[in-house]
Amino acid sequence: MNFAECTSARFGPITSPDTPIVFVVDDDVSVRESLELLIRCAGWKPKISPSAEEFLARPRVLAPSCLILDVNLPGLNGLDLQKLVADRTELPIIFITGHGDVPMTVQAMKAGAVEFLMKPLVGAVLLSAVRHALGRSHTALRHEAQFRVLRDRYVSLSPREREVMALVVSGRLNKQVAGELDISEITVKAHRGKMMRKMKAGSFADLVNMAARLRLTSAQQDLTAPDRSSPL
């Protein structure tokens, strides 16, 4: 597809709330208009900004999305903006520029950019990059949703259950856990059973994998800094 094809009346599908969003940040109005048309023709929802500052003022959207970003922007440039949104794994970046060089490309790609394209843009190449970026966004959002569920299960554990979990996944036997926590082995088994049910762990291997995702390394590490005076 080239940009001119979008002028046909058969293009321009109606979007829905679930339609992926393609953000564009470019200070060239002709580029913004062309990209907005191309994005609509492809069935995605365009959100256009002339500057990095205007883009940053937009609320964060937790939906499949990507960012087409010009490197050379007035004020805050594209590479600086990339650093500011580095934590937004659901927002892969496609850089575009009319004046790129090798060091600039390397810096952008090392920081996680999906693609670095030179202007004038080729519609088919850009659309392919956007599809790839949206696929990465969808995967990142799915992983984040799974992590939130896992984190909520962990938060539901009592402080003692968290201690038992950390010791169990580190390889301690029930008897050893009892000794370290100064409680009976029967009490350890009871806490362990409740903890396994709350975490919805079907096996010890499942529990170890969950702990790895939560990055639990000791009985004292905690995602929520619970009140240690809570009942056991």
Question: What would you note in describing this structure?
Answer:
The protein is α/β, with parallel strands linked by helices. It has 2 domains: 3-149, Rossmann fold; 156-214, Arc Repressor Mutant, subunit A (Orthogonal Bundle). 48% of the residues lie in helices and 11% in strands. Helix 6 packs across helix 8 and helix 7 (174-181) packs across helix 8.
Count of separate structural domains:
2
Q: What is the CATH class name of the largest domain?
A: Alpha Beta
The CATH superfamily of the largest domain is known as: Response regulator
Q: Assign a percent range to the helix content.
A: 40-55%
Distance between the termini: 64 Å
**Order of neighbouring strands in the sheet with most strands:** 2-1-3-4-5
CATH architectural name of the largest domain = 3-Layer(aba) Sandwich
Biggest sheet details: 5 strands, parallel
Low-confidence stretches: 7-12, 218-232
Order of helical and strand elements? EHEHEHEHEHHHHH
CATH topology of the largest domain: Rossmann fold
Mean pLDDT rating: 87
SSE-based structural type: alpha/beta
Strand proportion: 5-15%
What is the number of helices?
9
Strand element count? 5
How would you sum up the global shape? elongated
- Rg measurement, Å: 24 Å
